[in-house]
Amino acid sequence: MSSGSNMTPKEIVEYLDRYVIGQSDAKRVIAIALRNRWRRMQLDEVMAQEVTPKNILMIGSTGVGKTEIARRLAKMMHLPFIKVEASKYTEVGFVGRDVESMVRDLALEAYSLAKKEEAEKNKEKIEAYVENKIIEKLLPPLPPGASEEKLADYDRAFARKQEQLANGDLDHLRIEIEIQAHQIDIASNPNVPPEMAEVQQSIVQVISGLNKRKKKEVTIKEAKKLLEIEAQNELFNEEEIKQLALKKAESGIIFIDEIDKVAVSASSSSRQDPSKEGVQRDLLPIVEGSSVKTKIGMLDTDHILFIAAGAFHLSKPSDLIPELQGRFPLRVELDSLTEETLYRILTEPTNSLVKQYKALLKVEGVDLEFSEEALRAIAKYSAIANEKTEDIGARRLHTVMERILEDISFEADSLEGTVEITKELIDSKLSDLVESEDTTRYIL
Ligand SMILES: Nc1ncnc2c1ncn2[C@@H]1O[C@H](COP(=O)(O)OP(=O)(O)OP(=O)(O)O)[C@@H](O)[C@H]1O
Ligand SMILES: [Mg+2]
Question: How close is the Cα of 71 to the center of ligand 2, in Å?
Answer without folding.
Answer: 10
